[in-house]
Design goal:
Helix content is 32%, strand content 16%. The protein is of the alpha+beta class and 146 residues long. Strands 1-2-3-4 form a 4-stranded mixed sheet. Strand 2 and strand 3 form a beta hairpin. The chain is elongated.
Length: 146
């Protein structure tokens, strides 16, 4: 992946959705700064993040983090952790894993460049005859060749 001219950052791409206020945005962006390194390969104009919470501070709250990157499928991560901080960390870590998986899936499986690099061959000791193939006996011919 080539470096983007205007790399995406959490601070630039994050929107807060239902359950969060704009006042929460800076605190959440601070929790998600570890995603910056992973998002840096994408253009900021083509990347969006949205975090929302359903039933905040209640039993059964659900935190959702959605990620849209142009040319890729939308990624949605969720957490049902009761502690809001733990739930945010959970969706952040899951998004990072899924971005890594997505990157791996989009890389070519059969990279010609890697095939062109000569692979190291095991060294053969000419004095060691234990691994040498037996010399064919010309008096023994297979029935098919006779």
């Amino acid at each position: 992946m080539s470096a983007a001219a205007n790399p995406a950052t959490v601070a630039e791409c994050l929107r807060v959705g239902a359950g969060f206020s704009q006042g929460d945005r800076n605190w959440i962006a601070e929790q998600f700064t570890t995603l910056d390194a992973r998002l840096a390969g994408f253009h900021a104009d083509a990347t969006e993040l949205e975090v929302s919470v359903k039933d905040r501070e209640a039993r059964g709250q659900k935190v959702t983090l959605e990620c849209w990157i142009a040319g890729r499928q939308k990624i949605v991560t969720t957490s049902a952790e009761e502690d809001l901080h733990a739930a945010l960390n959970d969706v952040r870590d899951d998004l990072r894993r899924r971005l890594n998986d997505s990157k791996t899936r989009q890389e070519p499986r059969h990279n010609k460049h890697l095939r062109d690099i000569p692979q190291p061959q095991p060294e053969v000791d000419p004095t060691d005859e234990s691994d040498a193939l037996p010399v064919a006996d010309p008096s023994r011919a297979d029935a098919e060749t006779a």
